[in-house]
C-alpha cells in the first residue's frame, strides 16, 4: 500500500456553499473523511484490517487552504445539484 493512490469525486451540494458558490471551511474535513475512507476501501484496509481500524479517531486536524473549492453550477446560477469540488 506504500505508493497506493486513489481519486475520489466529491459532489458539492448546495447547502455546503455560500452565495458565491464557495464551500464553507467546515466542510473540508467532511470531504477529507470521505477521501480517507475511500482510500482505505480501495486498498483493502476496510476488509482485511477491520478489527484493527474499526475504532479510528481523528484527535487533531490542521488545514492549510491553498484554494477554495467551488460549486461551478451554484456560481453559474443553476441549482447546484451535481456541482463538483474544484480545487
Please give the count of helices.
4
| Count of β-strands | 3
Largest β sheet strand count, sense and barrel closure: 3 strands, antiparallel
- Tally of discrete structural domains: 1
Judged by helices, strands and strand pairing, the structural class is alpha+beta
Unreliable segments of 5+ consecutive residues: 77-87
Percent in helix: 25-40%
Q: N- to C-terminal separation?
A: 25 Å
Average pLDDT number? 75
Shape: elongated
SS strand fraction: 5-15%
Question: What structural keywords apply?
Answer:
87 residues; 9% strand; 3 strands; disordered C terminus; three-stranded antiparallel sheet; single chain
Overview of the structural elements:
13% of the residues are buried. The chain has a 3-stranded antiparallel sheet. Helix content is 32%, strand content 9%. It has one domain (11-86). Residues 77-87 have low confidence and may be disordered. It starts with 10 loop residues before the first strand and ends with a strand. It is of the alpha+beta class and 87 residues long. The protein has 4 helices and 3 strands, in the order E-H-H-H-E-H-E. The longest helix is centred in the middle third of the chain and has 16 residues, at 27-42.
